[in-house]
Amino acid sequence: MGGELGSLVAAQLEAEPWVGSLVGIDVDPPRRRLRMAEFHLLQPSQRERIVDVVTKFNPHVVINISVWEPDARAPLDHARTFTADATTAIIGAAAECPALESMVVRSGLEVYGRGRGSLTRPTEDSPLRPTSEYGHMLANIERTAREVGRRVGISVGKLRLAPVLGKHVPSPLGRILRQPVVPFSALADAPFAVIEDGDAARAFVRAAAHRLDEPVNIVAPGAITALQAILRGKRIPLPLFGPEWWVAARLSHVLGAPIPDHVVELMHRGRLGDGNKARELLGFTPRLTTPEVVDHLFAWESVVRVGEVREVA
Amino acid sequence: MAQILEFPKSAVTRAGNVIAEPLRSLWPTHSVDDYGRDPHLIAALGPLARLRWDVSVGGTHHLPTRGGALLVCNARQWALSNLWVSWALSEAAGRPVRFVGRPDVAPLGAMMRRIGGLLDDPKEVEGALRNHQLVLVCAEPTSHPRHAGAVPHLLVGAAVVAGAPVFPVASMSSSLGRAARAEVGPQVRPRRKRRGPLAEVELAEQTQHHLQRILDGFGGMQSGVAPIDWLAEG
Fold first, then answer.
1. Test mutation, A126, A231, A265, A280, chain B, max B CBs within 10 A
2. Ramachandran assignment for A215, one of left (phi > 0), alpha (psi -120 to 50 degrees), beta (any other)
3. What ipTM does the predicted assembly reach?
4. In angstroms, rounded to a whole number, what is the distance separating the alpha carbons of residues A236 and B19?
């Protein structure tokens, strides 16, 4: 609930008529004014406390968004540990709640992997063959949730999000694209799709309301290639052919925009997904297309300067 | 005292504009579709393709104006039938026709994805058909231009599962000349209703027969009257 996506989901849940009370857990405080929600500032490693909070609340629905994308808010090692801890604690605690009916977990298109012969636009039935660290982390969340769902007998919805971009969402892809000089794969320049954070939050709310019990891709319509995104953002394109990616990634890391393996994979092999099932099952249609989300990415201010505060009384 | 060094953002943006502006004016920045096909690239390559093939297309009224359909064409070895037939049908039908058979290795695979290629995978074909796309697959290539090879039943199975109609597309091109022809036949309807995998096997065989029938109806690539025929005419 403390991250941008979590805050958005909480704010939208508060407006839902079927939501009676709401409890959130995160390592950061909420970024929005929440009227109804109760918030607990807890680290993923504080399992006992998390279990205590969740079981006392005894929810009907649990939404697990606590996923640390590598190099978004934490480097890979920390991201892996935080995500594993949070998954164990929250999904484990949810399983102890007698009132629980449904669980919705965050996953991503990265679970399909981009190995040789992987589908251009995977559907939810496509096999899960993650080829990046982040993909493995997400596949692990799905596996854990599925096993708990089977044991406890609840519905488990898995939202496989395209890379999430938003005004305040920490995203390695967004950060790279907003650099003045942006590398891209000259030999492939593969197409990818993204999703805006507001749309992703709406998908979580719909999935919870519908008690979703299967995986669903959440993808904005349309696609864009890295070169096209760079040109739209009026950045300087830097074509790379192969081995120099390693140098570019290190240099980018030093400049403050690390390029994790799943983003390199996206630039080389693309990342598309079939989002039709979300429309069929949840009646969910993203408001923004992929090119529009990318345009917004470049329109957002780097630094929001707050004017001088003056006392008026 | 510490000093904040600001990145020369405006200078870099100006440089970015100088570099990107000519590229932007040459190439639209929103041109790929949901499958990575780039109609602008295809339009740009069109004149090049027309240098090689002068395609006459027939029977496009059989194709659905919306909704997915599987098109099956015959192929002669090394004729690149899937490429020129899909492009010609796209132009004639006014809808993108994707072809099956792109490799998954850069840069060739990436390039073929941009011009409408899909992987040779039944799941990929099924996904495209469910998304109301026209997908062209090729029968086994043969050495004779007027022989239809076996139709891959696994790919036809994708159409059966997706509930998409199957249309034969007879194609003929010359190895040396520019003349080429693509004729879309009426929808192939299964003779018997099957619940299992026999449905796709039988539909694939039927499609091959339909293709052969259309090919038999074609004249040769070099039609006309041979000098010896004048003697027979008296």
1. A231
2. beta
3. 0.82
4. 7
Q: How far is CA B189 from CA B60, B184, B200, in A?
A: 18, 15, 11
pTM above 0.90, yes or no: no
Instruction: Please state which of the ranges A29-33, A172-176, B197-201 shows the lowest mean pLDDT.
Output: A29-33
Q: How many CA atoms lie within 13 A of B40 on its CB side?
A: 11
Nearest CA in chain A to B122: A119
Distance from C-alpha of B210 to C-alpha of B204, rounded to nearest angstrom: 10
Ordered by start, the domain boundaries in chain B are 31-219
Among partner residues B29, B34, B127, which is closest to A232 by beta-carbon distance?
B29
The model's pLDDT over B30-79, given as tens digits with 9 standing for 90+, comes to 789 999 999 999 999 999 999 999 999 999 999 999 899 999 999 988 88
Nearest residue on chain A to B103, alpha-carbon basis: A117
Domains in chain A with CATH codes: 4-168+194-221+274-286 (3.40.50.720)
Instruction: Give yes or no for a contact between A67 and A134, defined as CB atoms under 8 angstroms apart.
Output: no
Could you tell me which residues are beta bridge partners of residue B151?
A: none
**CB count, 10 Å around CB of A245?**
17
**3-state SS assignment for residue A157:** strand
Residues A99, A190: contact at Cβ < 8 Å? no
